[in-house]
Specification:
- The protein is of the alpha+beta class.
- It has a single domain, classed as Alpha-Beta Complex (Cyclic Phosphodiesterase, Chain: A), CATH 3.90.1140.10.
- The chain contains three helices and nine strands; from the N terminus they run βαββαββαββββ.
- The strands form two sheets. It has a five-stranded antiparallel sheet with strand order 2-6-5-4-7, with helices on one face. The chain has a four-stranded antiparallel sheet with strand order 3-1-8-9, covered by helices on one side.
- The longest helix is centred in the first third of the chain and has 14 residues.
- The termini are far apart.
- One of its GO terms (molecular function) is RNA 2',3'-cyclic 3'-phosphodiesterase activity.
- This is RNA 2',3'-cyclic phosphodiesterase.
- Its EC number is 3.1.4.58.
- Belongs to the 2H phosphoesterase superfamily. ThpR family.
- Keywords: Hydrolase, Ligase.
Length: 170
């Protein structure tokens, strides 16, 4: 299987552990939990890339001048069609969609088109998950976002993702 590239926000150890600790209580019967090391919030999915396009995508990220920001992960829900259990910020700060838009604009110079669907920030907690209602977490998880990463997905057991490169947000 070829690498599937994506840009994402990668939680630090404290945020990752806090999210991972909540998964067992939320996990529907038969669902497959995300490996804790694979928890992330995707900004732009790129898919398989030729080496020249991958290099262009890295140069595109070099041009990003986004400010660091804070996220509050405070809700959990389910994408029925994809059978995905997720957590997310109920009210993402303006900096998040601005970062996604800037990244998409820069990636367009590489011939990489933005996903036409509206951006829905989330962290995948489990796959093959039966329906679960959207609800708020009584205690939010606070995440100080200080970098974006370029990562690739590989087949096989978790962890399935590897970070290739990191960019510091200013």
């Amino acid at each position: 299987m070829s690498e599937r590239w994506f840009f994402a926000l990668w939680p630090d150890e404290a945020v990752r552990d806090a999210v991972a600790a909540r998964i067992p209580a939320l996990l529907p019967v038969g669902a497959r939990a995300t490996h804790p090391s694979d928890l992330h919030l995707t900004l732009a999915f790129l898919g398989p890339l030729a080496s020249d396009v991958l290099g262009c995508a890295e140069r595109a990220a070099d041009r990003i001048r986004a400010a660091a920001f804070d996220l509050e992960i405070d809700r959990v829900g389910h994408f029925a069609r994809a059978r995905v259990l997720w957590c997310a910020p109920a009210s993402p700060p303006d900096a998040l969609p601005a970062l996604v838009a800037d990244l998409q604009e820069q990636l367009s110079t590489c011939g990489l088109a933005a996903d036409p669907r509206p951006y829905r920030p989330h962290i995948t907690l489990a796959r093959k998950a039966a329906a679960a209602p959207v609800s708020e977490w009584p205690t939010p998880i606070r995440w100080s976002v200080r970098e974006l990463v370029l990562a690739a997905g590989y087949g096989g057991p978790g962890p399935r993702y590897r970070v290739r490169r990191r960019w510091t947000l200013i």
